[in-house]
Amino acid sequence: MRILLAPMEGVVDHLMRDMLTRVGGFDLCVTEFVRIVDQKLPHKTFYRLCPELHEGGKTPSGVPVRVQLLGQHPQWLAENALTAVELGSPGVDLNFGCPAKTVNKSKGGAVLLQYTELLHDIVKTVREAVPAHLPVTAKIRLGYEDKSLAVDNAIAIDEAGASELVVHARTKTEGYRPPAYWDWIKKIRAHTQLPVIANGEIWSYDDARRCQEMSGCSDVMIGRGALAMPNLALHIRDNQPPMSWPELAQLLIDYSGYEIYGDKGRYYPNRLKQWCGYLKRQYPQAEVLFDNIRRLQKSDEIVAVLQQSAAAAK
Ligand SMILES: Cc1cc2nc3c(=O)[nH]c(=O)nc-3n(C[C@H](O)[C@H](O)[C@H](O)COP(=O)(O)O)c2cc1C
Predict the structure, then answer these.
(1) CATH number of 245-312: 3.40.50.620, 1.20.225.30, 3.40.50.2000, 3.40.50.300?
(2) What is the model's pTM?
(3) Residue 270 needs a FRET pair 20 to 30 A away by CA distance; which of 129, 262, 304, 312 works?
């Protein structure tokens, strides 16, 4: 079984990837999307979104990180895909799932799921540009407004030569509302030879097993669940119990050490408050923590609150 860390724009950046892959259990990460419109982007854009490219395309704990591209023009996507792999990305992933309005207006992300032929052309053109030994992968939802093209889209992506496919088992219209329709992944698998990775609504060991059973996939990708329980990958793999609150508080304190990369010192306070939103699903203490730090703007004040919270729980 492989477990992939999901791309999450504005949330799972290189620091979060480092943190979560240090905790362990992940086989591969995918970056936030690089938006491609009508030009070849400078190297610095790729390095900014994926600083791991400076280190052979791996997190400090050695987990490969694949660059994700989003766009609608096959040729521009292909040229930028080539740049990504030349800079050291272990393949490229194509985003056909993003529901954001701004992105869909300029015809990128999930909106493309309405245009099966275009999906095919994009994957084929990118596949031809990227050296054959490096994977070209795609990430889709089940459709834009309905699921009528789910199987056709997967077949088109397969025939265009993709190496594997992640399926987030919901349409764009279904957004992030439970449930995820894992049984639809099985339908897709019945029509393609493409290795498929199941994604959506996996929050626990039991969810992962049910998803595997209903989708027929052994590999899964996890996103929000890994933020709610940072050792979710190990929990799924080995049934390791969820990290305790004191352990988690220490992890959150360690994250403050990354401040040096932050933008004028606001990175840590902002990201920690955002992270609390995910953590409270698994840890009631995160709700209290959020109330205690919501007005704080300085990292050392937040760390002091975390230290108290960890000490109180011991
Ligand atoms: C805040 C946020 C940002 C996301 N950004 C991306 C992205 O950049 N690329 C992408 O393919 N999917 C993106 N997704 C979708 C996730 O990768 C994933 O498919 C989705 O969250 C379902 O998986 P989960 O239930 O495990 O979270 C994003 C999701 C969220 C919640």
Answers:
(1) 1.20.225.30
(2) 0.96
(3) 312
